[in-house]
Design brief:
Low-confidence stretches: none
Shape: elongated
Number of strands: 16
Number of helices: 0
Mean pLDDT: 84
Radius of gyration: 18 Å
Largest sheet: 4 strands, antiparallel
Helix content: under 10%
Distance between the termini: 39 Å
Strand content: over 45%
Amino acid sequence: PVPGGLSTEAGVLYVNLTETDRAAVVAYDLDTLAFRWRFAQASSFVLPTHPAATACGIVICFRDGNSTVGLDPGNGRVRWRAGGWIDAVPTSDRRRLLADSPDHGSHALLDSLDGRVVADLGAGTPVWDYDHAAPVYYLRAVEPAGLGAEVSRIQLRTGRLEPRGLLSHVGYPGCTSGNN
């Protein structure tokens, strides 16, 4: 297995593997360790050094080079493919996924049911409320560079950004939110 490549979700053990030219995930029943399914795909770039498959809302997200594949957790079949979006993580309601562009320069909210882009948030940095597993705010640089960041609240259902104000002197990794 790859480092950090073992995970469990809803009674299933997922084992991430790298093979000669591909990344793979194998699913086992957690109680009996009986084999359930296997999904493998040739890597379009270099083999991943971290797990290619992660629990992701109502699907298992599998990173495939410059895209994400949504796998059915029950049988490993491909439900959808979101081209141009990687490293998807679930939000609190499991219906939305926050994904990065391959260059990590922008983000989008994806629908976990069908992989469609609900909203392209553009360049910026999500601000997470880790207590509620939700990207609550989105920071976007203000021109001229160094002036600060525009803070907007993210509406997870629609992906709409509601401007809240400006922050100055915000650097990487940005900030976190707590107690709305």
